[in-house]
Amino acid sequence: MADHTATPPRGPAAAPPSPRAAGPDAPSGGRPAGAGRVALLVGGLVLLAAALAAVSVLSVCFGARSVPFATVVDALTAYDPADTDQTVVRSLRVPRTLVGVLAGVALGLAGTVMQGVTRNPLADPGILGINAGAALLIVFAINVLGIGSLSGYVWFGFAGAAVATFTVYGIAAMGRDGATPVRLALSGAAVTAALNSVTTAILLTDVEAFDAFRFWQVGALAGRGMDVALPLVPFIAAGALLALLSGRLLNALALGDDIAAGLGQRVGASRIVAGTAVVLLCGAATAAAGPIAFIGLVIPHMARAITGPDYRWVLPYSALLAPVLLLGADVLGRIIAHPSEVQVGVVTAAIGAPVFVALIRRRRLAEL
Amino acid sequence: MADVLTAENADAARVGAAKRALRDARRRRSARSRTVTLLLALAGCGAFLAALCVGEYTVSVPEVLASLAGYGDDGTDFIVLGLRLPRALTGVLVGVAFGLSGAIFQRMLHNPLASPDIIGISFGASAAAVVAITVFGLGGAVVSGLAFGGALACAVGVYLLAWRRGVGGYRLVLVGVGVGALLSSTISYLLSRADIYAAQQAMVWLTGSLNGVGWPQALVPAAALAVLLPLTAALARPLRGLQFGDDSARGLGVLVEPSRFALVVVGVALTAVATAAAGPLAFVAFLADPIARRLTGGTALAPPALVGALVVLVADFTAQHLMGGVQFPAGVVTGAVGAPYLLWLMARSSRIGRSG
């Protein structure tokens, strides 16, 4: 991957006006290297897809119990419930891998959409209040309703995320200009502040809730079974579709609200489409895997550093980069602390942050 | 001839009227800013007095004033001057420091999300403190000292990592985000590994609190602010320039890189001092400037400082006395006090908020 990041021409980042203007019918026209560049970028996507497949295989193969590869294949093709090794693969590792891929795709896309809509490089999906809303309702479910199992409070997390996001959006949209990026960011951060206060107050008075919460908060894939993974599929699929189709719309929004409107985009409607995608994606992912803040925040910047600012490329790159990083981190977390493990949220940041900083230092940044 | 003259006169009159209107608008705005600042200061004094009066043993306002003036009896003196004054004073100092540092970062980087909470400096302090509490079982002043060191180390690290023939504002923010994410996940990890009681203790520290603050703890931020406040005032002009972006600032005669360096140093020092004194009181730095700007419409630095102080005082008062018998750390309430107010201001005003 490192080789690949170096290859795209520096053009898009070095000359800001031209790629921005690459609106409706861009990459093939304009620059002479157009066709070659598209081929390169498509090649990169294929490479990333291959990397994702490879990481998924690793994720199914590695774990606390060492299972021979043949047994893994058997578990997937000719399942024998009597074999404990096969049961481990089928009931623990496969669902966990699935949650990893789903959450990765979701967080990567949601982060990109979020940064595009708010035109703010600091916006992660959490900025819409998603993490805070999910956290509050999960803590509420544990503290007041006494729900102890993950599959029980996933739905509370999802509901909390959705309600928080609608609140944030509603408040931001109240002014005359509608939900401008700055208003969205501010109202999101303020709602987060208010919700976190309540969450903290509950956590400080309820040791048990705190004990359960701290393991959700760190961000982990361990212990997520099919009962957690499968219900998320439709939400994430719908959200991913919306997000992947919103590339052109985000390109227009990147030019500013007025120009976007001039290009015929319905700015308010675009924001609502994008917001819906973010809620579906990020609400589901956060409820299942905890707030893995890093992915949503940083993956879009990594993708942008590779592709330049065109969202029609940034989106698919984010969608593939994120699960590769997430699952890779998860596998690594199982290997470094064998036979115990380090939660994926921690490993993700530990690997991702240095890469991210290096990337920022090395390239001329494609600013939002 | 006469027609021309009257036309010229009319033009002159129109220009004059426009000039007057502009001047009036400016005057109204600065008058409003002054009024709001005054009101904020008065509200702050009120909250300060309330903090001195109310507690397990209520002291009346005249008694408090007598004590402050040096004519109180020993019992009241002990309660007011010995116990409550250092706490209230620390609240003010910490609030001012957070409010100013938030305003500095948000304006310098022209990004309302760029408070020191978010670009990683607070995480440096927090990570150091959580390591001290959960791994080494330390407490008290040692934790504060380590938090101070953590904030500075983190800031130096971020600045150096962002340095590439000058620190672009954008790169500084992104490096801060990366480092902050790394540190915050380290904190989550330590919390999930630690013994539950140590973790809870760390959680209280992470929330931010003025509990148990006495004169020794109050004097450190007082001394630091005595140095930092004049520096901040001196940097107000370059800050106003940088607010419009690097190029405009250069056009206005601001030395961009040196000014930014000085502002980062002052902002970091303010954050580090405040965090060491009271923990990273959630969101004060983030909330103070947006609230102040919506109230005043101007860019003076006194209003965010006053808003910060007011939020901390009100939050500490609420956390101590209004939470139904449980003493919460102040940080639980700062978000609940400031955020709804900011949201209300945002919902009400439709004009402001286009630019950060």
UniProtKB/TrEMBL annotation, chain A:
Keyword Transport: yes
Biased composition, class Pro residues, residue ranges: 9-19
Gene Ontology cellular-component terms listed: plasma membrane
Residues spanning the membrane: 38-62, 97-114, 126-146, 153-172, 184-207, 228-247, 272-299, 311-336, 342-360
Region (Disordered) residue spans: 1-30
GO molecular function, one term: transmembrane transporter activity
Pfam families in UniProt: FecCD
Protein name: Iron complex transport system permease protein
UniProtKB/TrEMBL annotation, chain B:
Any one GO molecular function term: transmembrane transporter activity
GO biological process terms on file: siderophore-iron import into cell
UniProt cross-references to CDD domains, sorted A to Z: TM_ABC_iron-siderophores_like
Sorted UniProt keywords: Cell membrane, Membrane, Transmembrane, Transmembrane helix, Transport
Membrane topology: Multi-pass membrane protein
Membrane-spanning segments: 36-59, 88-106, 118-136, 142-162, 169-191, 261-288, 300-322, 328-347
InterPro entries recorded: ABC_BtuC-like, ABC_transptr_permease_BtuC
Main location: membrane
Compartments where located: Cell membrane
GO cellular component entries: plasma membrane
Protein origin, superkingdom: Bacteria
Family: Belongs to the binding-protein-dependent transport system permease family. FecCD subfamily.
Name of the protein described by the UniProt record: Iron complex transport system permease protein
Source organism: Allonocardiopsis opalescens
